[in-house]
């Protein structure tokens, strides 16, 4: 029950953070900002959470960052782009994936976990 409450509380916090970014940012790259920042922080926290225990990991990585970043919205936007422009969709999908991977690796590096 404790784990469910941790994930639920974190999920609520992450969803509220995500919504706050959406309503305060008029930039068309909102999803890139959310996923990039979330990937960076997730990379940094991954090593920290492993060291600090499962509860912290459930709250921050699964809960907060799991709802702050959004693969579902990314997938829906990607599908819509595929119907409109397959080349742009390819660039978008590959670009977002590489961008988030690099952000996570940088977070890991900043956290001192990547040599």
Question: How much is the radius of gyration in Å?
Answer: 15 Å
Summed up, the domain count is 1
> What gap, in angstroms, lies between the N and C termini?
37 Å
The number of helical elements comes to: 5
Main sheet overview: none
Number of strands: 0
The portion of residues assigned to helices is: over 70%
Shape: globular
Average pLDDT figure: 87
The SSE order reads HHHHH
**Class from helix and strand fractions:** mainly alpha
- Low-pLDDT residue intervals, each spanning 5 or more residues: none
Strand content: under 5%
Key terms:
115 residues; mainly alpha; 5 helices
Describe the structure.
The chain has one domain (2-110). The protein has five helices and no strands. The model has no long low-confidence stretch (mean pLDDT 87). The radius of gyration is 15 Å and the shape is globular. The protein is mainly α and 115 residues long.
Write a concise synopsis of the structure shown:
The chain has one domain (2-110). Helix content is 87%, strand content 0%.
